[in-house]
Write a structure and sequence with these properties.
Elements (H helix, E strand, L loop, with lengths): L9 E6 L3 H12 L3 E6 L15 E2 L3 H5 L4 E4 L4 H11 L8 E4 L8 H11 L2 E4 L2 E2 L2 H5 L3 E7 L4 H11 E6 L8 H29 L4 H8 L7 H12 L8 H18 L4 H18 L22
């Protein structure tokens, strides 16, 4: 992607290079026509991006200075506000701000107001997908925002995702972030149901693979079920969507539902399971480690 008038590379500042932000920044750095700057609170997490040509910055202000596009991929709304606040003096008026973190229904408004304050074109664009799709550039982007930003936004989205769903409505009202909560409610239900079913099978003395064989190829089967079940059965939980992040999202879902007058019993139960798993020491592991919350002492039958 290059500037349409000058032919110069488009400068993208990526604030937040955790599991998702790192993969996004790397794909942008490897795509033609982008100059990428990356910042992360823990600099060591961003430094490997230098091998792909990205410039690693020490501060958000250094990363965004003169940038055409600012992409935020941080833990939550407060961390996004903090990073943009630290970058404020260096933001270029008229730059496009792609807010891609999961901030919840109430978290978008303050960010949209900050964009107006700093003269930025704001796009709220949370993503669907975890580590592997992010690394492969196969994320789905849910986007809503300033029409004037759409051309620049789409070019960035094409480098990091395989599909973009543009939603009608004002980004400040959060149509994209609200849809992300709906999807994540389903994701958390699948993750926790998988862990609970595997744990129940083990508790009842049933080989969990018989469960997977019983539903194979039928309407009860799902790719996500198999992926998370295999993680549990292998006893290895590299974070794709970490327990702590999933617990945070469950809280956002529950809060939005209460405001809307909707009961989300499953989401609240999922949040409780994730909280227990976090207390058991699994916060940094993949959300499928909520499986351990099925056991009062955190130990599956085979480990007792």
């Amino acid at each position: 992607m290059t500037d349409d008038t000058t032919g110069a590379p488009t400068t993208v500042a990526v604030l937040g290079t955790g599991i998702m932000g790192f993969a996004m920044a790397r794909n942008l750095a490897r795509a033609d026509g982008f100059e990428v700057r990356a910042w992360n609170r823990t600099r060591a997490k961003a430094e490997p991006l230098a091998a792909d040509g990205a410039r690693v910055a020490d501060t958000p202000a250094e990363a965004v200075e003169g940038a055409d596009v600012v992409l935020t991929m941080l833990y939550d709304g407060p961390s996004v506000r903090e990073a943009i606040g630290q970058a404020a003096g260096a933001l270029r008026e008229g730059a496009v701000w792609l807010q891609m973190s999961t901030v919840g229904a109430d978290g978008v408004g303050p960010l949209a107001r900050a964009a107006v304050q700093h003269g930025l074109l704001f796009v709220d664009a949370p993503v669907l997908g975890t580590k592997e799709p992010a690394e492969q550039g196969k994320l789905t982007v849910l986007a809503a925002g300033d029409p004037a930003a759409r051309t620049s936004a789409d070019r960035v989205f094409d480098a990091i995702g395989q599909r973009t769903v543009w939603l009608a409505g004002d980004a400040a009202d959060g149509p994209a972030s609200r849809l992300k909560l709906v999807v994540n409610s389903w994701v958390l239900a699948l993750i926790n149901a998988t862990g609970e079913s595997v744990a129940l099978a083990q508790g009842l003395g049933v080989d969990p693979r018989y469960f997977l064989d019983a539903v194979a190829g039928g309407p009860l089967d799902a790719g996500y079920l198999r992926a998370k079940a295999e993680t549990i059965l292998a006893g290895d939980f590299p974070p794709s969507f970490a327990v702590s992040a999933a617990r945070k999202d469950a809280g956002l879902i529950a809060a939005a539902a209460r405001e809307a007058g909707v009961r989300v019993d499953l989401a609240e139960a999922a949040g409780e399971r994730l909280r227990r798993a976090e207390e058991q020491g699994h916060g940094a592991e993949d959300a499928s480690a909520a499986y351990f919350a099925s056991f009062p002492d955190g130990a599956p039958p085979a480990a007792r």
